[in-house]
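Query structure, 326 tokens:
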């Protein structure tokens, strides 16, 4: 059990939260935040979840699914996101994805050394689904039992020229000379409206932490992501069982609410499936019909399919996945 008292989280008294202090960067003090949900009957295992871009942890159903199976569930709000965003900071900005390794290291130490978990499943969504495999490749943690990636960002979506050598060079140069230059882009709010309870969706979350209109994209941050893509494309060598979940289809036209509720309108799912095998030696890639970008926030019947897939995969490659008796 934790050696320090934890505070109640915004999600309610079942969720405990602690602040992780990190070395300051050029903008000043930096923190990350670790949220914990304890199971009623712990099995000695844990999950560490990392969110995506313009996001934070509010996925109580996902956390409860793991806790019902005996896993202590931890979620990390990375620096400059969600609970960890400080007033003086540029939201989400880092110049290198490896900057996140510091808080993942410290969260992992708390889970394994402080709290005594010897088997940990790493879970991540979207940009987190790129960052976490890169961290695993570098750190090779002995306690890692498996990896679950929910719509990981494995490549630059959009027209082919966005992935050309010329564009790559331009991002490198601008990312070095003008890292905080914002990249103009058109962002539809329809994805957020399909999610948030105030706009007809199912989920309640803080719109100041996860805005309907997303967040600005800066050249220096995109350079960091594209460098991460290059490392992934060169091939990682992870040996743990890995599950890659995605929607069955993407849609990049002008979405309406029905399209946004049944497709990934953020990433190209064909790219996800194409690059999934680059993660390592033992990868299962499953496309869920009707899923959205964040698969576990899809409609209830689609989520049920996703959890069924997750449960069967967990039983086959990690261990028992069924819910425990109260």
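Result returned for the query:
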């Amino acid at each position: 059990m934790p050696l320090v008292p934890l505070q109640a989280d915004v999600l309610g008294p079942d969720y405990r939260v602690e602040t992780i202090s990190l070395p300051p960067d050029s903008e000043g003090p930096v923190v990350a935040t670790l949220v914990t949900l304890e199971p009623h009957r712990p099995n000695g295992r844990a999950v560490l979840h990392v969110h995506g871009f313009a996001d934070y942890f509010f996925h109580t159903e996902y956390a409860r699914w793991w806790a019902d199976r005996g896993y202590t569930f931890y979620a990390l709000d990375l620096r400059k996101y969600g609970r960890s965003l400080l007033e003086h900071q540029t939201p989400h900005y880092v110049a290198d994805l490896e900057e996140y390794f510091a808080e993942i290291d410290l969260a992992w130490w708390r889970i394994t050394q402080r709290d005594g978990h010897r088997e940990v499943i790493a879970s991540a969504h979207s940009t987190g689904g790129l960052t976490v495999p890169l961290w695993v490749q570098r750190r090779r943690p002995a306690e890692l039992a498996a990896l679950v990636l929910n719509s990981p960002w494995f490549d630059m979506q959009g027209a082919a020229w966005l992935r050309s050598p010329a564009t790559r060079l331009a991002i490198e140069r601008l990312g070095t000379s003008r890292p905080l230059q914002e990249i103009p882009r058109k962002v539809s709010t329809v994805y957020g409206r399909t999610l948030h309870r105030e706009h007809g969706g199912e989920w309640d979350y803080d719109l100041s932490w996860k805005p309907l209109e997303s967040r600005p994209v800066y050249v220096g941050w995109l350079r960091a992501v594209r460098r991460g893509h290059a490392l992934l494309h060169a091939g990682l060598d992870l040996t743990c069982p890995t599950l890659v979940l995605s929607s069955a289809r993407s849609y990049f036209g002008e979405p309406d609410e029905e399209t946004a509720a049944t497709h990934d309108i953020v990433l190209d799912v064909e790219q996800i499936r194409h690059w999934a095998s680059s993660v390592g030696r033992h990868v299962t890639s499953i496309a869920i019909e009707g899923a959205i970008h964040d698969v576990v926030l899809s409609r209830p019947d689609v989520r049920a399919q996703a959890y069924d897939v997750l449960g069967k995969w967990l039983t086959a490659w990690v261990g028992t996945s069924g819910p425990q008796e109260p």
